[in-house]
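Task card 7
Instruction: Convert sequence to structure tokens.
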Amino acid sequence: MSGVARVHSVVLECQDPVALATFYAELTGWALVEQDPDWATIRERPDQGSRLAFQRAPGHAAPAWPDPASPMQFHLDFVVDDPAAAEEVALKLGATKFAHQPGQNFTVYADPAGHPFCLCH
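Output:
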């Protein structure tokens, strides 16, 4: 089946787009290719590849996962070769590790804006 649309970006809402883009750029090694106070974008390579974008949402409230009253809504999964080294980097960059860890092949964290993400091994 062929579709009529292709994914352009995954966009995360947050209060500080440049700060959150910088966090993910340093976590992934991707390039920060666009930034202003209301929007920032990182890409796998400066001129091509996957994109993550960050949009200012002044009233953004982070989900309180794993509270069922505040669902995760979505999360990002990143594959890592060395889980311990990746965790060290993520925590130094400002991530927090959730106390509740529901699986064995991944670890769940929150980015500095509170969005859940997983480091998968």
